[in-house]
Amino acid sequence: MPDNPKAAVILLSGGLxxxxxxxxxxxxxxxxxxxxxxxxQRHRRELQSARDIGxxxxxxxxxxxxxxxxxFGGSALTDxxxxxxxxxxxxxxxxxxxxxxxxVFLALxxxxxxxxxxGDIFIGVNALDYSGYPDxxxxxxxSFAETARLGTKQGVEGRPFTIHAPLQFMTKADIARxxxxxxxxxxxxxxxxDPAPEGIACGVCDSCRLRRKGFAEAGxxxxxxxxxxxxx
Length: 232
Hints:
alpha/beta; 5-stranded parallel β-sheet; 35% helix; single chain
């Protein structure tokens, strides 16, 4: 057994999905330890949301880790590349993909979990209504769990980590419904990749479009203010 069996580490970006996952972990009785990564992302506004969510959910510990991926670039979120605004392209990995982001972040989350004596890791990846990122697929999560078992003291001692991805097979509408059921205000979270100069969500990047579509399909109100509608 892990040293702290009712502790779970959450990768808390500040987005809708990570907020819902953190609330689900809390609902299941875990003491939530949150990890947010300041990787030089264009939408650093999400870090403030992560802090707010952590405070509202009463997390046990919240670590904000600096890791400047702008040194690498290669993504519209970390480099001087325009964020697409014309809609989600099917069967293509968009330029907002950050090279190996979830691979890097899950490694860091696992290190935090092992240092915290926790055996459970929660991540808000989704493989249905998403932007086509390869590191959101269930086969990646399963493969990483085996890597963590092989590459950690806790794993080789027979106490492997359980990686929870409760939103893996949900649509964005399903996630919006969970947000509502859990009593969360959508506006606590931040999804926009390219915030408008006045500090509100652009409304038309891939992330905004997927989020707004989900709430619309669920028949629920997204309380987040947006600069543009999805046709503008």
